[in-house]
Amino acid sequence: MLPRFEAKAALAAITRTNVTSLPGVPTMYQALLDCPDLGKTDFTSLRACISGGAPLAAELKERFEKLTGAVVIEGYGLTESSGVVSCNPYEGRNKIGSIGQPVPGTNIKLVDKEDPSKPAPKGEPGELTFSGPQVMCGYWNRPDADAEVFLGTYLRTGDVAMIDDDGFIHIVDRLKDMIAVGGFKVFPSQVEDILYKHPAVKEALVIGVADAYLGEIPRAFVTLQDGATQDGAALAVWLNPKLGKHERVQGVTVMDNLPKTMIGKLDRKALRLAVGS
Question: Which of 54, 51, 44, 65 has its CA nearest to residue 22?
């Protein structure tokens, strides 16, 4: 165990201790790739890397796997689920962009985003709920909070998801993060997924900002890969034609750093506070 995540120390520990698995969030894997000590790190012992806490960009997964020889497995869990709800398999089919399939003993169902007492309409995203032996008993002395999150034995996650024909779960976005654009719901993660396809973009967050006519409108904030020189205006010109009418961003702001939580996840809430959204 390291006292805190620091890329140089983590790489040194991989070489020193011959670890076989490594858990982290996407920004940690990006930080390892950016560290100058990457080239002198011995990854021969590393087999499986677990990624959670935030969506894992396909480009980041592929680059890390190519440089290390390890398999990066994306999964999903909550504090309330004792850690894990679903995960991609280490061996077998690994669907990029999905959080895998439910772990053994876990049941999944999607409920209507507006009325959780009803199932989600067939073929449409719904709020992800689950039941299983890992579900918490409840919040300590908070029966009011329990009433909000429990649907019988199922726990509401607050995440909007789709389940494909193979039973793989795809997170669409957080219910609280959806942007209401003139009555239409826009999922920030779908805009961020497009931004990550631009070779200059290193990190991306999209939030809703006030708009006098539409109520809210998306705005993107990014950091750039080392050596990249694109400005926000050029990125917006590249991005908007690839989006639906209501997904188009007001603009793209290039920043030196995006706010992160203590464990290294990109922090949308802190960004909203920083920009006064």
Answer: 51
Model confidence over 51-81: pLDDT tens digits? 988 888 888 899 999 999 999 999 999 999 9
Residue labelled with tokens 């961020």: 192
Contact assessment for residue 76 and residue 105, using Cβ atoms and an 8 Å cutoff:
no
Tens digits of residue pLDDT in 171-185: 988 888 888 888 788
C-alpha dihedral sign at 122, 125, 127, 132 = positive
Measured distance CA(83)–CA(90) in Å, rounded:
17
Q: What is the DSSP pairing of strand 126-131 with strand 107-111?
A: antiparallel
Helix axes 232-239, 188-195, angle to 10 degrees: 110
- Report the alpha-carbon distance of residue 11 to residue 40 in Å, rounded: 9
Map out the domains of the chain with their CATH numbers: 7-76 (3.40.50.980), 106-160 (2.30.38.10), 178-275 (3.30.300.30)
Cβ atoms of 135 and 80 within 8 Å: the answer is: yes
CA distance 49 to 15: 15
At position 153, the amino acid (one-letter code) is T
